[in-house]
Design goal:
635 residues, Phosphorylase Kinase, domain 1, 4 domains, 18-stranded antiparallel sheet, globular, ATP-binding, repeat, protein serine/threonine kinase activity, non-specific serine/threonine protein kinase
Length: 635
Amino acid sequence: MHTKHRYALPMGEVLHNVYRIQQVLGAGAFGITYLVEHINLHSPSVIKEYFPEFAIRQDGQVQPPNADHAELFNRGLSRFFQEAQTLNKLNHPNIVKVSDLFKENGTAYFVMPYMGSRTLLNWIESHSTPSVADLETVFLPILDGLHYIHERNLLHRDIKPANILLQEDNTPVLIDFGSARFVLDSASPMTRTLTPNFAPIEQYGHKSEQYTPALDIYSFAACLYQAITRSLPEAAPDRIPHDTQMKLADNAAYRQLYPVNWLAAIDKGLNVYANERFQAALSMKEAFVNPHTVSSPLPLYTTVMDAPETTQMPPQPHTTEYTPPPSQPKPTPKSKPEPKIKPTAQTKSSGSLKKLFGRVVMLGIFGAVGLGAYPFVKTWLSKPPVDKPYRSTVELTLGKRKVQYTGWLLNGVAEDNTGTAQLKFDDGTTCTVGMSNNKRHGTGTCVYPKGSVYEGAWKDDMKHGYGKYTPTKASPILTYEGGFVQGKFSGKGMMKYKNGAVFVGEFAKDNIKTNGKGEMTGMLGMNARCEGTFTSTYANCQFKQGNSVIKFKGEHKNGLWHGKGELITLDNNTQTDHYRGVFRNGDMVKVNKPAPEPSETDTPPETIEEVPADTPPPAEPPVQQNNKDNVNNLF
């Protein structure tokens, strides 16, 4: 929503004799929203003016630009007024309340209480890894609000973080029910207004009678998905026919942070098919509250997730108009009535003789062709069908490398969404994977010559989405499981080391993300991991030990404290111990209290050569791909 509009009313103008305009809060496709002050009570309110984007303001009056738009404008104005009357009857703490409604300046206005400008989107931006308690406080009341409006046969139809206000105590309030949006949907079935990434597939179609509460549940689940992953779910049309949306319950990193029933409930709410989602808001709430409500199998890997490389929020999609292609009725071919012939012994025998004679003739033809024409006959017989998938073994080129491919093809191009296509490279690499347009796409497993293995999602012939990587025996890393972006560790993931240590947190470009949040073992034998911010070599974290809080600042390697560092013990927020020195594999080997405080620019002592914990040995790095020549670097 934009905060500027060339037809917006000026500051200071008074509406309905009592509401003085203070500023423009936003402008969308169907209206302008103002912050106003009651001139007698001096209390703030919000007023929304019906102003579809095609309208103009002339001599102070809002009107359609020409006669062609008059009917649509008036129909929208009428429905805007009716929907405001409906919202005025609603009374729920999580649903915006319409307190006044009036017509003026050739259009309509409705008044709502001013609850500040902090939205759920602002909250998501400030909570990179929200706790379950945070999610319960902010999201579960929204389901109560949805249950309330669904019971009254109302749908919101544009739930997204920007349309959820948060009050000072984090109570969520659903706003912007999109009154004008309803009239354009119903009056002109060729036009749909929706927000990509939050709208389910049924909103892209013609049949509004297919809208059910599952529509709002999909959008709600998309908000939760963004809150947890800090990335947008894939747009619904891109998930058909091959659904590449990652399942949160399959991701080991998210399972470390959130209960499986929460993740499985979000996955179910985001199902691309409406009948596979929760059909009621309270059913979804029950799935969050009761761990046994939703069962979710946990396969080893799933499909593509565009994991964020940074903690910056992706650009938010705007509500847009979508014009679905017209559905064409299939013509019914006219067939001539066939004469009814009663079969007789003679006709049956005649048909059998004809079939037998045909087979004999064909055999005679092939026999007469002779051995000299055999190559031609073989080619004719083996010629692949046109525009029909067929299974074969052929040689393909992936990037700059030749590979033997066994799987489904369409017009000579590898198209295999079963995930069972076989690839064999000259260097010994083998893959069982999905294919699209001669590129690895979907899910699959590749085993490399030196023993490393990747199991997970592919996109455009790159590891992309959720996956599990097992390096060579020489690597200090046991496994990495989490997000990949263009072949590199990115997003949230879990790295296990062969020394028993673990790091769970944010990754970017094959390393622990600079200043990313996470938790690390630090010292073997501790009951709790050290939580805080990390770089590839530096940690600033803390953990609890009994009633004490232990803080660590310093260098790390392979999931353990290694290099310069310091430990600070706090009891009841009072410092009781302070050690500074040198650590090796999680143990302090040298105490040096006068030493200067460590910083991220410090280098380890010469006797302790620092190597980034998440960098495998030079012999075979986990991923060294780039966009220019991806395939050559994979193997």
